[in-house]
Amino acid sequence: MSDRYEHYQQLKFDRPHPRVLRITIASPLKLNAMTPILHGECSRIWKDVDADPTVSAVIITGSEKAFSAGGDLAHERKTCDDYELRMQAMKESRDLVYNMIACSKPIVSAVRGWAIGAGIACALLADISIAAKDAKFSDGHAKIGVAAGDHATILWPLLCGMARAKYYLLLSETFTGEEAASMGIVSLAVEADQVEAKSIEVAARLAQQAPGATRWTKHTLNHWLRQAAPIFDASLALEFIGFAGPEGKEGMDAFLQKRSPSFPLDSNA
Questions:
Q1: Is 78:131 a contact under the CB 8 Å cutoff?
Q2: Euclidean distance between CA atoms 232 and 95, whole angstroms
Q3: 8 Å CB contact between 231 and 213
Q4: Which of 15, 39, 159, 194 has its Cβ near the most Cβ atoms within 10 Å?
Q5: pTM of the entire predicted model
Q6: CA 14 to the chain's CA centroid
Q7: 82 exposed, middle or buried (CB, 10 Å; 0-12, 13-18, 19+)?
Q8: Taking Cα atoms as reference points, which of 138, 60, 140, 131 lies closest to residue 100?
Q9: CA angle at residue 46 from 42 to 52, to 5 degrees?
Q10: Terminal CA-to-CA distance of the chain, rounded, Å?
Q11: How confident is the model at residue 267 (pLDDT cuts 50, 70, 90)?
Q12: Which of 79, 94, 103 is nearest to 43 (CA)?
């Protein structure tokens, strides 16, 4: 394995095919939730992958029984009151999205269990997403009192249409991998015990194709996302404004205290 990956602590690497790098999210937290270290690593890894001449395709997956259940809310609550932490998290969230879009190597996600928050961003920003039929997806921003930032406002309307994007983002509804495939949010849904094999098969096929043709096809398709960059930047800014406001603090406090949030009836936001 290249030395360029040695400094990563909570991403693990192996080669299921000589030209395929598999990245495994390996958080010490329950359901692979994102620690501050892991969040930063998920934002930076794509530049290292892009610069690695030994890699022609990438798989991103999760260890154990979950892809990643999103951010660690105990840490995220600290960002509400700490400007430096908040700006760091915002930069990493921005870098995660733009670095995945800019990575010239095709990315395949292999999703089992929960994919939430930054986890669902990694899963759905992959060029080809393969989910277990019983995988669970959710973007829970609105539930904790902040705007849907991360990736969803630029990506979901393209994948499943505006009506469904609004339904699932405004209500923070959960949906399965099978439902995600039927809506076009993921590329394929298979049985859970087939996810690994199918992801390797697809990544190996990508790795064996003409590299220029594959990469430039990805590049041009991703212009759909690049032209929506102002939408993403606005959603991300509004999300992190929400972190510093009363709704975000109340939403996270309620989640951590295992109670229903008490949001104001109206807001000038």
A1: no
A2: 12
A3: no
A4: 39
A5: 0.94
A6: 20
A7: middle
A8: 60
A9: 135
A10: 49
A11: low
A12: 94
pLDDT of 269: 62
246: Cβ–Cβ under 8 A, 6 or more apart, which residues?
Answer: 264
Helix, strand, coil percent content, the chain, rounded in steps of 5: 55, 15, 30
How far is residue 68's CA from residue 61's CA, in Å, rounded to a whole number?
9
The pLDDT of residue 1 is above 90: no
Per-residue model confidence as pLDDT tens digits over 222-231: 999 999 999 9
What is the number of alpha carbons within 13 Å of residue 258 lying toward its C-beta?
0
Which residues neighbour 22 within 8 Å (Cβ) at sequence distance 6 or greater? 13, 14, 15, 16, 58, 59, 61, 200, 203
Give the neighbor-by-neighbor strand order of the sheet with 20-25: 11-17, 20-25, 57-62, 107-111, 128-132, 188-190
Q: Helix (H, G, I), strand (E, B), or coil: what is residue 263?
A: coil
Q: Is 256 helix (H, G, I), strand (E, B) or coil?
A: helix
Query: Phi and psi dihedrals of 18, rounded to 5?
Result: -55, -30
Strands 68-69 and 107-111 come out as unpaired
- Nearest by Cα to 106 from 198, 229, 202: 202
Class of residue 153 by CB neighbours under 10 A (exposed 0-12, middle 13-18, buried 19+)? buried
Q: What is the mean pLDDT of residues 9-31?
A: 96
- pLDDT tens column, 105-148: 999 999 999 999 999 999 999 999 999 999 999 999 999 999 99
pLDDT tens, position by position, 152-210? 999 999 999 999 999 999 999 999 999 999 999 999 999 999 999 999 999 999 999 99
- Which tokens is 126 given? 């992959």
| Sheet hosting strand 175-176, strand order edge to edge | 68-69, 114-116, 136-138, 175-176
